[in-house]
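Backbone geometry:
***
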Amino acid sequence: MSAGLPDPKEVEELLLGGELRHTRVDAVRLAGVSREFSGRVWRAFGYPSMPDDEVAYTDGDVAALHGLRRLVDDGVLGEDGVIRLVRAFGQTMTRLAEWQVNLLSGMLGAEPGESPAPEAVRTIVEIAEKHIEEFEPLVVHAWRRQLAAAGTRAIAAASTREAGAPGAARSHTTVGFADMVSFTQMSRELEELELARMVERFEETASDIVASCGGRLVKTLGDEVLFCADDPAVGGEIALTIAAAIQDETEVPDVRVGVAYGPVLPLMGDVFGTTVNLAARLTALARPGSVMIDAELAAQLEKRPAFALTRITRRPVRGLGIIQPYVLRRAGQGGGAGDVPETGDAPGGP
């Protein structure tokens, strides 16, 4: 350990909120769980395997094991369901923790990917020690907010299904991808720091727009974001706003946006299905700065006065056959040079 750096054990106990006082054997005994169950839980959380005789667990770890066991005993979740829940928390919190440490390191002068200086490490520990009790409620607050939103969506979907609406067994959702143009080429030309800043700016802009319009950011993939919206008009508004906002960004290349409407399978915070695949294919067809949508979404938006639709030549796409794309614009906005209209300019055209 370098001189002057904080003791790792003291930092760990500070952040864990308690003393490392139990071995794995002790934790299993005190929590009243099996060794196998505890192992599955720790692996799902993303924790490394520890020797049985190493003191590596706190009272909080014991309480977590006991609480998870109660979920099984009370019939709330099966053991496999608990492990899936824990894995969701573990993967989410891993990214959050890395993001927070990188953010603080960057604020203290460290470049992305660069180890922070010893004085920066000491400052980070001091910030954590002083403000950990303020950070922790923010995590719970954000989780409760997102849980409330997800619960509301589930209730709305159940209500639709109860009413016997067509296709109600699987929810219909607007799914969109926004993809940066020429990202692979730029990744070869830019320095790593410049590339990281560009990606961060793109993700910030897109995620702010998705949230403010009332959609949901499903995931970010560096040069691409995936978003959803229950209301087709909200999905169209998000797509157009992202395309326009990125065009105004001098540090970020234009984006192509592809959006489709149809049934999706929500699973583990992600979405799957043909509708998602179609949105991805439409993104590849779109020109820089434009929004390409499928026929189903076009039918949903054709009578909305805020939007203008242009039907273009049918295209074959891998895995989906021949599809009918439409270019989406705001009403009153002129056409682009890349549009190849067919007869008619609306879904009901000949």
The two ends are 75 Å apart (CA to CA).
